[in-house]
Amino acid sequence: METVKFKTTIKCSGCVATVTPYLNEAVGENNWQVDTQDPNKILTVNTNDTAKENEVIQKLQQAGYKAEKI
User: Please, where are the H alpha helices in the chain?
Assistant: First the structure.
């Protein structure tokens, strides 16, 4: 399984709650986490499908957040 990291605009636990249904739909429950303590608010996604990278970015945009692969 590959780990992909994104710099995001997810700032707090409320933001995480907002994006949860979107990310669960994109990559599945328990396949992602956000480090809100990191200054770059790093989203880590575990996936076997590199095509999911664009889907993660799109889902976060639908939820009102930005993500950039790092």
Answer: 13-27, 52-63
What are 42's strand-pairing partners? 7, 35
Give 29's contacts (C-beta < 8 A, 6+ positions apart).
none
CATH (residue range 2-69) = 3.30.70.100
Q: Which amino acid is at 34?
A: V
For 12-53, write each residue's pLDDT tens digit.
999 999 999 999 999 999 999 999 999 999 999 998 887 788
Domain ranges of the chain: 2-69
Q: What angle do CA 39, 14, 2 make, to 5 degrees?
A: 60
Instruction: Using a cut of 0.85, tell me whether the model's pTM lies above it.
Output: yes
